[in-house]
Design brief:
Elements (H helix, E strand, L loop, with lengths): L1 H15 L13 H4 L7 E5 L5 E5 L5 E2 L4 H13 L20 H5 L10 H12 L4 H16 L5 E2 L1 H9 L2 H12 L7 H12 L1 E3 L1 H7 L1 H4 L14 H14 L5 H7 L4 E3 L4 E6 L3 E6 L10 H14 L6
Helix pairs in contact: 1-14, 3-5, 3-12, 5-8, 5-9, 6-9, 6-10, 7-9, 8-9
Length: about 300
């Protein structure tokens, strides 16, 4: 079985390899603009600790919005269902940084995976603490899941995020004006900009996501990190909202919950099976890794993994 999956990883990598460098590297965050578009990595983590990898699977990259999955899990663990007072659970059908729906829907973001919703989620995770304590919790959680203390924040990217964060500041002030923020704007954004600047390799990211494939349990330590029903709901939100207005296309082609980031990474969850991370900086028009999505589509087909099977 593991050998078959190793072949599926190799095939998926080879199929997508000619497309690396295609698409557009995110350049609205200056620190991401100079990333080599020819990078391409793939890693599959299995519950027994096996990792099958190809290409640049051990080069760290900025996970950007993939971090939203981990902060969502931590916020649900900290405040439970009260989180849904601050953020909805519906697909947005809009760009990740759109302000339009906030206006018409009273400052409540559609879901936790668009920027406004992720900021609202991070705001609830802070729960009266300071920026450093909250970031320490996020990093400790991810490092433990990845079994690697080298996971850290790329401070150049974090600074670049903050310097070019006018739209995110607008979204946050807008939510604050509706009373949908528990902490000062710059406190919420201080955590958010740094969480998005976490740098991980595909191998580390795939391992870190395994708990979502195993109903909230770390399969290597046996620790129940979040309740099974919360893990299932996070996967549902990833399936519906993980790629913004490209989520339907991703579900149609890949058939697995996933979360993309503009750094070119995608975390994909196969419930009961494993966790997959890909990275290729060139993005399609919706901001999802172009080669990465192709590789995931082929892998899901070759492995026979789909939540619809």
């Amino acid at each position: 079985m593991s050998a078959d999956l190793a072949r599926a990883v190799a095939e998926a990598y080879d199929v997508a390899l000619p497309h690396r460098g295609q698409g557009k590297v995110a350049d609205y965050i200056p620190a991401l603009a100079n990333v080599d578009p020819m990078h391409f990595g793939f890693a599959l983590a299995l519950p027994d600790g096996t990792v099958h990898a190809a290409g640049d699977a051990d080069i760290p990259f900025s996970i950007q919005s993939v971090s939203k999955v981990f902060t969502l899990a931590l916020a649900l663990r900290r405040v439970g269902s009260a989180l849904w007072d601050s953020v909805g659970r519906e697909p947005s059908g809009s760009a990740f940084n759109s302000i339009v729906q906030l206006e018409s829907e009273g400052g409540i973001p559609r879901n936790p995976l668009i920027n406004a919703g992720a900021i609202a989620t991070t705001d609830r995770l802070i729960d009266g603490r300071d920026v450093d304590a909250t970031i320490a919790e996020i990093l400790d959680f991810i490092r433990a899941r990845a079994a690697d203390d080298r996971v850290d924040i790329d401070l150049d990217v974090a600074f670049s995020e903050s310097e070019t964060g006018a739209r995110n500041r607008s979204l946050t002030h807008f939510m604050d004006s509706f009373g949908n923020l528990r902490h000062p704007v710059e406190t919420a954004l201080g955590v958010y900009f740094r969480q998005c600047a976490i740098a991980m390799s595909c191998r580390q990211l795939a391992k870190a996501g395994l708990f979502l494939a195993m109903e909230g349990r770390d399969p290597l330590t046996g620790e129940q990190l979040i309740e099974p029903h919360r893990a299932r709901r996070i996967n549902a939100i990833m399936m519906l909202c993980g790629h913004y207005d490209n989520s339907g296309e991703f579900a149609f082609r890949v058939g697995l919950p996933g979360k993309s980031g503009v750094g070119g990474g995608i975390l994909c969850i196969a419930p009961g099976q494993g966790s997959i991370a890909v990275w290729s900086p060139g993005l399609n028009d919706a901001g999802t890794s172009l080669a990465g999505a192709m590789a995931l589509e082929h892998f899901a087909y070759a492995a026979g993994w789909s939540v619809f099977d």
